[in-house]
Task: inverse folding
């Protein structure tokens, strides 16, 4: 879960001026990103994603039918997905296939 504070003050949490997001991996090939709490109008976008423990190099990575650039390190088993640039205000799913 990602927790983002707008401008932290003593009452930021009490006034619920923060955002929280979940990142859920499904079937080892789908990353679901969704907002849990939206208490701050932020306009934040997700730029780059690192997924740890990916066993094989994917053949492709996509988001809403758009192909995404990626890198894979077979030694560390880290899939790095570049230039996602998707608004965090709405849920979305990143897919990959090996």
Result:
């Amino acid at each position: 879960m990602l927790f983002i504070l707008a401008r932290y003050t003593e009452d930021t949490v009490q006034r619920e001026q923060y955002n929280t997001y979940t990142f859920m991996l499904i079937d080892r090939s789908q990353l679901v990103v969704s907002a849990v709490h939206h208490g701050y109008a932020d306009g934040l976008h997700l730029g780059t994603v690192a997924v740890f423990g990916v066993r094989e190099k994917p053949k492709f990575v996509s988001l809403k039918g758009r192909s995404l650039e990626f890198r894979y390190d077979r030694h560390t088993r880290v899939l790095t997905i570049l230039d996602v640039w998707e608004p965090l205000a709405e849920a979305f799913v990143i897919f990959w296939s090996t």
